[in-house]
Specification:
399 residues, GMP Synthetase, Chain A, domain 3, nine-stranded mixed sheet
């Protein structure tokens, strides 16, 4: 009897192995081409996709030339660029010239050419969201000019230019726009999408020896639904990011309250919130900003940080932040009619009944919305020296 039970147990274990999937669908690393970044452009009626594909054998040290890596001085990546009538067609064309299967799951950045962005990104987003290997956490960025030219820079400080774009996005914002948040903004009411802008630059002045091309983030791309309507420069862009509470330790330059010169204050902590209300049938939104500041540079002859001088400096930073944010909001309101701060969404959240009345007319109402700014900044530290360095006592200006 004992032997029969033993035999049955062994038979059951043997039968269980029939349900084990095994490795029938395995993919060997040597059979895969890892896409680490993609640049998408529009050339007349055709799409161009440029894939940045990692070369694992050339991903040694970061000190060699070309592409930021390679033990033998070769690039740690190569570009594969193809055109077709459809974006999916470019991928199929690219696969024809690759001995390995294109694999998109490791792609973390996506560069969108300016011409394509102005034409509309909806067809591109449909493909990227429908195919399961495309990560929605990838960071989309709009480029000035052709995206493939920015993707093909030297960017020597990182192994891959696409990775440098990603690091720049995280330096620029605490929570950079991902593919998911970008699509959410396109599909949501009361908010318009935006993305960072990247461009190709040189790392040294023209004519210097060993010059290399580099990547720079310098502004925001403003969208209405899925179409680019304009780009704003870095200064107003930084002010708007601060108003969103997304600024990553920004530095604000203020004119010294007395004397001559400028002072730089770094905001180590900052948070912002929108508070809408209706006044005389007009929408008014107040941006409440809270921050802690540190004086990191004094290029003026003002003060030795007495109590009343700290108060004056606080007033100066408050006025500067208020002015910069209000100027940035006016720009996107009047020139682009784009609500990238999500003022409409804040009305929907705080005043849902009022939003139901105005949402159908929001595009007409938004440019007339009055936006006020109330900063609350505390300067916690002025450094190890109270007096301006290099300025004698009799030349220091006091209040």
């Amino acid at each position: 009897m004992f032997l029969i039970r033993k035999f049955r147990a062994a038979l059951m274990l043997l039968l269980c192995t029939l349900f084990i999937a095994g490795c029938w669908d395995r993919k060997e690393i040597n059979d895969i081409a890892f896409v680490i970044g993609i640049a998408v452009d529009k050339e007349e009626e055709n799409y161009r996709s440029s894939l940045q594909i990692a070369l694992p054998g050339q991903s040694g040290s970061t000190g060699s030339s070309g592409g930021g890596g390679g033990t033998s001085g070769d690039k740690s990546w190569f570009m594969l660029s193809n055109t077709a009538k459809t974006l999916r067609g470019t991928s199929l064309e690219g696969q024809k010239s690759l001995s390995r299967k294109i694999y998109y799951a490791h792609r973390r950045t996506m560069l969108i050419g300016e011409d394509l962005a102005r034409d509309g990104v909806a067809p591109m987003l449909d493909l990227f969201t429908r195919y399961p290997l495309n990560r929605l956490s990838a960071l989309p960025v709009v480029t000035k000019g052709a995206a493939y030219e920015v993707m093909d820079t030297d960017a020597p400080i990182e192994k891959f230019p696409s990775e440098m774009v990603r690091e720049l996005c995280f330096l620029n914002m605490r929570n950079p726009r991902s593919l998911k948040t970008f699509i959410d903004a396109i599909l949501s009411e009361g908010v318009d999408p935006f993305l960072p802008v990247a461009s190709k630059v040189s790392n040294v002045p023209e004519g210097w020896k060993d010059a290399k091309t580099n990547i720079k983030l310098d502004g925001l791309a403003i969208f209405k639904k899925d179409k680019l309507v304009g780009m704003i420069d870095k200064a107003p862009a930084d002010a708007l990011i601060l108003a969103m509470g997304e600024a990553n330790a920004p530095e604000i330059m203020v004119k010294a309250p007395g004397g001559e010169g400028n002072m730089f204050i770094k905001l180590n902590e900052n948070n912002a919130s929108l508070h809408p209300h209706i006044k005389d049938d007009k929408v008014v939104v107040n941006v409440e900003l809270y921050a802690k500041g540190v004086l990191v540079d004094n290029e003026s002859n003002y003060g030795d940080r007495r109590e009343n001088e700290i108060v004056k400096l606080n007033e100066a930073i408050h006025e500067k932040i208020k002015s910069d944010i209000e100027e940035g909001v006016r720009l996107v309101q009047e020139k682009y009619h784009a609500d990238i701060l999500g003022i409409g969404r804040s009305i929907h959240q705080h005043l849902p009944a009022e939003w139901d009345k105005m949402k159908a007319r929001w595009d007409d109402i938004y440019p007339e919305v009055k936006v006020t700014v109330t900063p609350h900044v505390i300067i916690e530290n002025v450094g190890v020296s109270n007096k301006p360095i290099g300025v004698v006592e009799e030349d220091i200006v006091h209040d």
